[in-house]
Amino acid sequence: MNLVKTTARLSVAALMAGGMAFAAQAETVLRIQTHYAPETVSGKLAAQYVDDIQTMSGGDIKVEMFYSSSVVKSVETFDAAGTGILDCDMTGGAYQTGKNPAFQFVGDIMGGYDTPYQQLSWLYYGGGLEAAQELYNKYDMQLVGWWIYGQESLASSRPIRNADDFKDWKFRSPPGMETKIFEKLGAKPIVMDFTEIFTALESGIIDGADASGLANNVGLGLYDIVKHANFPGFHSMPSDHLACNKAVWDGMSDANRRIMSTAMMALAMRTALTFEKKNAEAAAKLRADGVNLYAWAPEDLQKFRDAAQASWPEFATTPEAEALVESHMTYLRQLGLAK
Hints:
The protein is α/β, with parallel strands linked by helices. It has two domains: 27-149 and 238-278, D-Maltodextrin-Binding Protein, domain 2 (3-Layer(aba) Sandwich); 154-236 and 298-334, D-Maltodextrin-Binding Protein, domain 2 (3-Layer(aba) Sandwich). Helices cover 50% and strands 14% of the residues. It has a six-stranded mixed sheet with strand order 7-6-8-5-9-11, sandwiched between helices. It has a five-stranded mixed sheet with strand order 2-1-3-10-4, sandwiched between helices. The longest helix has 35 residues, at 254-288. The protein is globular, with a radius of gyration of 23 Å.
């Protein structure tokens, strides 16, 4: 009897030890950086995503989150994740156009889709995720998903009523195709980090800024400095991404990878719906506070689209970029948004 009891105890102990070893192996600790400040709408949505994946994984996924590009500059986040300084990049692909112009067409497809839902449908139902994944994997990264807050609004110290107002307009621009488009319209884009916008506007180094959506711009305090904006936006609808070091991603359990991917789809929907409401509320408040909001006429919007689409071929200079442009054009035609 004693031998039976001893054997049973050893068996239970072995099972418990095996279970603990499995739990330790399944646990993943991720260091993720975003360029958003924690007090902005997008920063709070990112925090919700972190809470979701930690909760749904039962604590198997743990996240150390870095806001406001506090570890490395926004444009350096992708490489920091790829080299192990971080594990995941929660900025956007457009920051990596210097690495490969194809990132423009997964980061900010300017002059393309009208709504976040159309752009997300390309990713999930138009073959976009597969096409984009080839690009990310080439740089040892895994694209987990997108979160798109909709069309951006500009901030300006002078009126931006139409395309003619862009003449000699000095503004903060992210790197990439946007600089070429606005140069065609007579503007003077200056590439600088997201975190430098406030000081550059305050000091007058720039006349305006392409930062984010209207609600995020309010959160950044941009309209405390300048009193002109456009709404609804039209020029830019960035796809903020979550991209992780591929070795880290491949080392996660199937369950945890599924949790992160599914939670990204939830974040995408939550983001689009949140900003429809937040941007409308922000617009009403800004008008009441004396900020001038300009809704562009159709002919001026067309001038921008023409300039944007004329710049697409100039950026499609690698096989990956050409493939992504063709993928977008095929899908835009299916949606009736291109001829």
